[in-house]
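Re-run requested by the PI after the first attempt was lost when the workstation crashed. Everything re-entered from the original request form. Ligand of interest: adenosine-5'-diphosphate.
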Amino acid sequence: MQPSGPTLDIVKESVGSATVLSPKGDVDMARSPIMRKAIAEALKAGSAKVVLDLSGVPYMDSSGLATLVEALQNCRKAQIALSLCALTPRVRSILEIARLNTVFAIHESRDAAIAG
Amino acid sequence: MQPSGPTLDIVKESVGSATVLSPKGDVDMARSPIMRKAIAEALKAGSAKVVLDLSGVPYMDSSGLATLVEALQNCRKAQIALSLCALTPRVRSILEIARLNTVFAIHESRDAAIAG
Amino acid sequence: MADSLAEPEIQVQILSRPELLAPVRSMVNALAQDAGLDDISACHLVLAMDEALTNIIRHGYAGSPDGRIWIRLSQLADGPGLRVEIVDRARTVDPDQFRGRDLDEIRPGGLGMHLMRSLVDRLEHAPRPEGGMRVVLEKRPAHTTAGVA
Amino acid sequence: MADSLAEPEIQVQILSRPELLAPVRSMVNALAQDAGLDDISACHLVLAMDEALTNIIRHGYAGSPDGRIWIRLSQLADGPGLRVEIVDRARTVDPDQFRGRDLDEIRPGGLGMHLMRSLVDRLEHAPRPEGGMRVVLEKRPAHTTAGVA
Ligand SMILES: Nc1ncnc2c1ncn2[C@@H]1O[C@H](COP(=O)(O)OP(=O)(O)O)[C@@H](O)[C@H]1O
Ligand SMILES: Nc1ncnc2c1ncn2[C@@H]1O[C@H](COP(=O)(O)OP(=O)(O)O)[C@@H](O)[C@H]1O
């Protein structure tokens, strides 16, 4: 067996004092640890604001949602602003079903998230 | 069992003397009969030129290729120009493997196909 | 609601590995759409199945990569919609012991069971006499209610 | 090249129906990419499998919708790439009798066999002692040749 395994590319950009992370792909049980690690690194680097651009995420399961909830809690502790933006309709509906849509700061566009 | 079954939406437009057909979806064993029927109708309607815009076709199997070959033969008989345009990289590579890329008039863009 | 007696159109056996979830989701999503589910309903069925599989991999087989999981897929007999039946040979547990957290409680774990209940029109967990568990999920399009229990 | 002895990661049983090809393609495409195939190579493996399945549905089971087809999927043991094994209980034929047309001849039918040969790194058709046929397809990424027969 080749353990090439599942990957999740995450583009990381600095815009002013914000770090923008843009994962590309499904955030599921096999891939959410990759997103978890990328968020933890952004927090360690001391950004004032972290924006998750979810425009490239067609799907997320409860392990992805749990990673977001954990990130929110860590950001609160460290007084870092966390926001989500550009959700696909599927991921938006998953956040709604999990009743997490009111828990997170969610912006339509990436620019609004960076400014907001 | 619900025979809802596979569908293939095909947008049909008239541009000058050309009929442009734009299928949206895989053209495989279950769906190529739908494309075959749409092409036959365009020929019967007496267009001078038929353009197949394949930008919405991510995949085609030998039944799709056979439908294209049959359409070309019918067009030649009826002295109607047939061309393909806007192939996705996958479908382009499938036509190449089948050595049909030199048999058809293939244009990069839809405008070039209509003009050409 | 009586179970459909027709042979499932597709049956899949996978090993209990997280990296196999994405390929299975792709297939079930395509099937769900062919069965008449709208895009969001298909996504919700796929998510419910994914949560059931994740639980079997994580809790049932305790992370071992060589457990077997069987997934049977069939269109509903009495209207548009898809049925997913999942069978394992993992730990047999009393489904009443499955504890999910309340959706209003905001913490990382325990979301799966509650999500599953909110996502589909029918959800059943039962121990199998032969050992292991059986989960049945059914989903109809958002606008139909025909046959929903 | 010796066959991998590891248990296939995914095994699928489908009924011989053209509308089930798209869902199976979705799954195998995702698996092929996870197995290290580039997008075009994954597409070529998927097309070769599709042609084999189409032939079984059309010629093997002569269009009957209730034939069974088994598909076993496993990563190659000696490098990136995917192996697809397809087994049926349909007509047993001598593979030498399969007649495809030459790719230079331009007519609608008979493309399938020639495409299959051009698309994959390994292709085998054989009758099964138990009845029916067995097809094996293997595909590696475009840039590797390791282990290609
Ligand atoms: N297939 C299963 N086998 C054994 N226990 C299970 C299974 N599915 C769920 N459980 C139990 O139910 C609990 C709640 O599951 P869930 O809501 O998905 O949350 P999580 O998996 O995050 O703990 C699990 O922690 C586990 O104890
Ligand atoms: N699984 C099969 N069972 C029986 N005959 C087959 C099978 N696959 C292929 N054949 C035979 O080989 C011929 C060539 O197949 P192919 O190149 O795919 O073209 P086509 O299916 O368009 O005829 C078929 O016409 C059929 O006679």
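Saved to the shared folder this time. Chain A touches chain D at residues 1-2, 4-6 (CB under 8 Å).
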